[in-house]
Amino acid sequence: MANTKINTDVINDNAITTSKIANDAITNDKIAPNAVGASEIVDKVIGASKLNVVGNGTNSQFLRSDGDGSFSWDTPASIGVGQSWSNLTSSRAFNTTYTNSTGKPIMVMVSPIQTQNVVCQGTVIVNGATIGGWYFYDNASGPARFPTSFIVPNGHTYRLTVTGSTLWYWGELR
Hints:
Blueprint: E1 62-65, E2 71-74, E3 85-87, E4 98-99, E5 106-114, E6 120-126, E7 129-136, E8 148-152, E9 157-163, E10 165-173
Antiparallel strand pairs: 1-2, 3-10, 4-9, 5-8, 5-10, 6-7, 6-9
């Protein structure tokens, strides 16, 4: 049956189902190179209506399975997408645990300022893991700022444990 084409005149609708095809019956080595090209695939064979999707997405969205046979348009939870910087200096404090409940990862930018002539040290903790820190002492040049930034995944906690400093700026991309 080499090079024989089977068309819809030969096969009844729904005659071939997954239950009638043995596992691994159709593999790459059984399909001739370039046998299925764009001309063999009818435009919109698998459209939104066949996937149980309502509406059309945008160019930045993707289809996400809802787990029940339907699909929804979703936006990637990417840092910076649909987010803006907020100055949270007046509502944030060192040595306090916060939780990112935005539904997306956030970026935190904090600038402590050294209390003059004391050791300044800090630790960044995300979801219980220490991910960075600093230690500084300089009694000659005066107060120094220590800007630090980090990403916090959605649902994770974050905390800056700091001594010898006061908060100069706390911003979050959320």
